[in-house]
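Structure (tokenized):
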């Protein structure tokens, strides 16, 4: 079963670069670390060897994860002028009864940008915000009960 993930072109390109880099440079570097550690002798008590093998396992897991995401990726075109909340946009919201405006990036955690919290489009808040426009108020089910947020701005 395919699980399509929506990405902006920027995030897709970044993930593809990381995938190719790990498959080439990353694998070469880890192989060199393992070879250097093997030269130190007895592998059963060789901390460097075990650390390098663990690092290799984590890297191979990341490669597999990235490969799956790239295969199942759907690139979304963001209409910056629509004022509509879409995957890959930054949405500013104000919770009912609060004076503070909070900014979130709506998308996959892989879309992350420094200084912004990420909201999944599949989360209750993400579902409520998706396809809504600036000025609208939406209600979503939070763990402590329903909450309302007003959409203050949408940016790319």
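Design, position by position:
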């Amino acid at each position: 079963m395919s699980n399509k993930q929506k990405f902006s072109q920027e995030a897709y390109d970044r993930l593809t670069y990381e995938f190719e880099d790990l498959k080439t440079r990353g694998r070469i570097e880890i192989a060199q670390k393992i070879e250097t550690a093997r030269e130190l002798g007895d592998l059963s008590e060789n901390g460097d060897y075990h650390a390098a093998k663990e690092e290799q396992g984590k890297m191979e897991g990341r490669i597999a994860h990235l490969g799956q995401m790239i295969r199942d990726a759907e690139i979304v075109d963001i209409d910056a002028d629509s004022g509509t909340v879409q995957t890959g946009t930054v949405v500013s919201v104000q919770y009912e009864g609060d004076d503070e405006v909070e900014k979130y990036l709506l998308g996959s955690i892989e879309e992350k940008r420094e200084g912004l919290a990420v909201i999944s489009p599949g989360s209750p808040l993400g579902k409520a915000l998706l396809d809504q426009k600036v000025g609208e108020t939406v209600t979503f089910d939070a763990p402590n009960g329903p909450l309302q947020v007003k959409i203050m701005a949408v940016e790319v």
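Reviewer-requested clarification: The CA atoms of residues 18 and 24 lie 10 Å apart. The first helix runs from residue 9 to 38.
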